[in-house]
Amino acid sequence: MFEVDPIGIVFSGAGGEAPDLGSRTIWVRDSSEQEKMSKISRYNHFQNWQDGYRIAFNAFTGSLALMTDENYLTYLGLAAKMANGGNLNSFEQELLKQLEYGHFMYPDQSDEFQTLKFLHGSARYDRSQLALIVAPTLACNMACPYCYEDNKSGKMTPEIVNSIVDFVSKRAQSLEKLDINWYGGEPLLAMDIIDDLSTRLVSLGKEKQYTYTSSIVSNGYLLNRETVDRLVALNVSVCQVTLDGPARLHNVKRPLKNGKESFQTIVDNVSYACTKMLISVRINIDKTFDAPVIAELLAELTQAGIQQRVAVNFGQLEPSSAICAAVAEACYEVADFSQVEIGFYRQLLDEGFRIEKLPRPTAAFCMAHQINAFLIDPEGYLYRCWNYVGDHDKAMGHIRDAVDYQNLNFTRLFAFDPFSDPLCSNCDILPICMGGCPSNRADRGQTGEKVCQSWKHNLTPMLEIIARSRQQQAKSTPKEQS
Ligand code: SF4
Ligand code: SF4
User: Fold this and answer.
1) Mutation to probe ligand 2, out of 117, 441, 453 (largest number of atoms < 8 A from CB)
2) N or C: which end of the chain has fewer CB within 10 A?
């Protein structure tokens, strides 16, 4: 949403050279430029780091930087002059230019809170982009105990496929971007539908000149070489695969329906897939995970040679439906999960994996807050949330019909406005959260800090991990000329 290099900048000038975070160094304000007044962003985070340096993070832009303690003192002096008036010395002028680049300070004539509110509103009502999560089947080849898509069969009919193409066609004239995410069930059980629908939507995009992007959520078992090559040819560039622990645990938690083990096949598949597409490995965390279990899994991924080629993320397992409620006692609340995940990300870093979980600014938390984003199930029902797939009582309509924005299943999740909520509107990480999961509020009745993302609880240690990760990457890659 914001056009600033997300991670990060290095404050140069007064105070000497900062440790290399693998990022751009920016230089001083042109002395001929007229000095303007600036404001201090309410979304700044400064924290001690090491050897006289501080980590500086701005949630409005996602900028991450290192600054010397000396520069931090200059910043405090600068901030005081901004509040009380006073001429800036040359160090302060130099630092101000860099602070403005990362939005740590910003021009006096704008208001970042109102800008954020405007960007959020624009994202809610943006019709230039259409995001469809398409479940071509709810059938699955696995039998995970926590799964809400219980024992479904069948797949999308040609009539529903045609309706989806019609749905996009009607909007194509004003469309700049179409994003399709394949979901299920296990979507690769309906590869023929993916093939047919992708081909038609890509072709329509060429004709109507919209950008087409695509990704898939798969359990990875059917992600063989042939399928990967076909998906790539169909513009699918990102795949999320789930591993629920090292082989001995994953094979119990995610058994195939026929009783066979799946771990080794998935890892073999990922080894090839990660050479062709971005692979995100999600590990669903519940209370059965501890450091030795994570260490065992990371060792297996390292042994498979994919340590540097996949993005490993830890997901909080949540009881989002009646079926998942059966495993609810094993699930963490977000505050506890946020503490547990710090240790797991440290393990990732220590074992040489990349850290891909970043505090990125977002205009809207998820599809539920965007009028042009829908999940479509194999029967053509439209939903506002990933967790509703296949539950017709929670559908907001059908792909064949005009979209009904008065439907209660639409308004129920769409209604929450973080800018009207006292806690969210005063929150210093609002730009990276935007109020949290609407379903947690509307369906689970959560309020207050219960809805907050884990960043609310662990931003400080996570920023340290991310900074260390960037430093490691910088050491292992040739230096960029700035
Ligand atoms: S409402 Fe919550 S669970 Fe549903 S898609 Fe949005 S973030 Fe995900
Ligand atoms: S849900 Fe929590 S973390 Fe998110 S914006 Fe609101 S107060 Fe902040």
Assistant:
1) 453
2) C
